[in-house]
Amino acid sequence: MPKTKKINFTYARGRRKTASARVRLIKGKGETLVNDKPFEKYFPGITGKYLLEKLLKTIDVKDKFYATIKVKGGGKMGQLDAVINGLAKAFVALDKEKYKLPLKKIGVITRDARERERRKVGTGGKARRKKQSPKR
């Protein structure tokens, strides 16, 4: 049986709404994969690229690390925010003194706790909507 290469990595979990991302941060050169697809293919468009660039530029680690990420639940934006949150937490777990303050400043470590509000009975379809009452 061939020997597999042991990889040292830092693990973190990021969340947003119903999306959950498991991040493995690995030192070295490589391609960041999200659900076995390149980051740019999984999150097409400018927003994903911009948020990742902003995170990496803030702590000056471009081309020094790569990550393998598994993300599930929610929509694409929720998943993207969960991935960014997970990456930030992984960098903090790697070196707290060096990375925590700059990442906290741009607001990527803090989990956004806002969730979808449940629909209530008798409200006419929405969470906070009130049914129309007759005038007389």
Based on the model shown, name its key terms.
136 residues; alpha+beta; Ribosomal Protein S5, domain 2; five-stranded mixed sheet; 21% strand
Class by alpha and beta content: alpha+beta
Low-pLDDT windows of residues: none
- Give the helix tally: 4
- In percent terms, what proportion of residues is strand? 15-25%
The quaternary organization reads as: single chain
The biggest beta sheet is recorded as:
5 strands, mixed
What is the CATH topology descriptor? Answer: Ribosomal Protein S5, domain 2
Please bin the fraction of helical residues. 25-40%
- Assigned CATH architecture: 2-Layer Sandwich
**How many distinct domains?**
1
Which series of helices and strands comes N to C? EEEEHHEHH
- Please, what is the average pLDDT? 92
Walk across the major sheet and give the strand order. Answer: 1-2-5-3-4
Protein name: 30S ribosomal protein S9
Keywords: Ribonucleoprotein, Ribosomal protein
Family: Belongs to the universal ribosomal protein uS9 family.
Pfam family, one: Ribosomal_S9
